[in-house]
Amino acid sequence: MSVTDEPLLSVDGLQTSFYTEEGEVKAVNDVSYQIDRGERFAVVGESGAGKSVTSLSLMRLIDDPGRVKGGDVTFRSTSAVATLARKFPEGVATENSPGYIHVTELRSESGAVGSDPGATVRDNPTDVATSLHDGSLHIEAGHVDVLDASEDAMRELRGNEIAMIFQDPHTALNPVYTVGEQIAEAIRKHLEMDDGAAKERAIEMLERVGIPDAEERYSDYPHEFSGGMQQRAVIAIALSCDPALIVADEPTTALDVTIEAQILDLLKELSNEEDVAVQLITHDLGVVAELCDSVMVMYAGKPVERSSVEELYYEPKHPYTVGLMSSIPRIGDDRERLDTVPGTMPDLVQLPSGCSFHPRCPYAEDACLEHEPPLVDVETGEPVEDPDPAVHSAACLEYTGELQDGVDFDVQIREDAATDGGESV
Amino acid sequence: MRRVYDSEALRRDDDDPFSPVEDDESASRNHVNWTNLSHALVPQAIRSRAIAVDVETDKDRYEPGEEIHFGVTFANRFPLPITIVTETPKSWEWSIDGNPKGSEVPADHPEDRSTFHFSRSERKRFRRSWSGRVRVDEKEWRSAERGEHTLGVGIDAVNGAEKLRAETTFQIE
Question: Looking at the predicted complex, does its ipTM rise above 0.90?
Fold first, then answer.
């Protein structure tokens, strides 16, 4: 399998807990997914479902008392492998020594290099280059184990290869530095440009995210920007170093709908034209329909449904997803009141036995109290070991044949609303 | 209009007790971090005696399938801050018949030590409940058998853990 066939990011069995006096808060509990190059992947769920903690874990931004307890995060980018191998040769894995930088295929000017490419890279770190640059050793395939990487290596990855757009631009921007300086800082750090070149690129970035008169606005402070412009400045910081993956944590929650549409268009354009993968965290299913290719629904720190966006909207399989869908207000809807998912998210210190959703599920039976459903293929009922985006999977006993009465809901797709993914459940 | 700098709000005077002092170095010299001092001076053996542990269920008898609600209290008997060093980051744990959180699946807490801190004479109260179902596997539970069950609470302290435990019993009928 060549490197481009493999997903850019694989998250496998991720577990993150916060140890508080109340007990262990299991914020992320065995989450697996993968994102391909240029794919737009959504993580949706209520507040407290573990969406943001999942993203912060893969960026290694979990602070005490939080701990990433288990799992693997594999990031397959040859440029990331090349940069890290050059700067941290001691982290390159060889046949005899472990490491977090794995070089699986290496070429030199004369052809493919020996049986242990890791050792070759470790011995010649200065020669390591990607195929884009001149150099005697080209890394053709490799990956980085993000959770094992050193703190210095993570600082190289963050912002450069994996960028994050934070939820609230007011707190993400530093009020005492100009907006331009905050963008230029990331460029100077990662792209090793001098002050003048970094400023030029920062202005280019501001123009790109649609800030008018970017040259003038470069030296404005964040308070001189409107909310939408601040969010665009945060996006400009994220884009400034041409990342391979952008993790966007509710990027449009603080914005009005017209600016939201512009920001979504910008993210779409980036992923289409530059093959940037986007992991979008949101609780707005409308945004998911607008932007994303595939989606994972989370509940109480676990994935409950995973599928392509079309299948999720037209054929939701998990009762929680159905509940979320039916709580979306729609124009022309003649219902007196919106349906809601009754109750609240369970306390993550003591999760209910069996299926975590059973206390709120209208279809819950005795079996749901004693068996926790694994994520299964909804067609075959077979557990899904490898998170394959093409397989529609849901964690409900309905699909393992253990429910007696089954789940029973209708999805009606209205012709007039079908264009914006509208249906009522 | 009176400006803020005309208000003398920032007037500093060492002799006037109602205005900020010119030099606040003396104030910082008086500051003692009692938590750290107590942690340094109180012997380990006394620390585990200082904390009283108590656990109480809301009833003595429960129907099968009924949720068991209970309260846990940790009280610092000393008028000094006490810090207990724990084996794992988990400050305390409850168990049913010796199974942590009613689960036969072993817990997997990281093996790095942490601390459980009490201010002087502090009482910490926690409310918890148990569903009455024993976790027998990662994804399987079964109803608890009828009869007497023991609910235990303890701090997994590095020193004197045996003193930092409490137990109670209840019946499922």
Answer: no
